[in-house]
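Quick start: what a row looks like.
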Amino acid sequence: MAPAASPEPPEFVARDKAALSMEVAGDKASSRGDEREALSCWAEALEILTSRARSAEAARVASKMAMTEENLGEAESACVHYAQAADLYKLAGDLHRVPMCLNNLAMLRKLSGELEEAAVLLNRALEEASRCHGAVHGETALIATNLGAVLCECDDLLGAEQRHMQALGIREQLFGPNHPEVGLSLGHIAVIHQMRGDHERARSFYTAALEILDQFPRLHEAERSILRENLEGL
């Protein structure tokens, strides 16, 4: 029989309780719309949890802070906490949460114009998603799509096409050929063909994308409008 674990010193137990109390206080502040108070409470909880090497709990709090900071437009702080959350989730063995932390971090880097860093992060996120979710998963498709968009902005059209084709294949397997997510992937591929000057293939993909998306008039209105304008401009 294994020996019983020694009880933790009272001061450690008190610190853990304080961290939980501050996290709950932050949750309550967030629920009533007081994001600043929420961030203050969570920051205190995060400091305690990291000092206590409570990786899973610290990752959860860092993720809450990142999402709130992103909503407030505080991109740099959000990036710090998304990166911290990814590392802590990995340390805790909670691997299925790592890819979206990296994805969200990458998209903030993309918005700030740091395309190469965004591509590196998305490649890492895609590897992590494929490893923990499998090759056919909605999250894997989403990250592949985002990577395709970043590579397109980097003028890596071949890489962009490969990632969008990967996302298309996943979505067709998951949802069937007439799902709106499939339509969006077809639209991305159409843009790539247009950028290459292959107007016939672009027209074919735009038409296929719109045939699907027009079946869902309340979804993706902005995307449908852009795709239709692109098609008419060919």
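That is the whole record. The mean pLDDT is 95. DSSP finds eleven helices and no strands in the chain.
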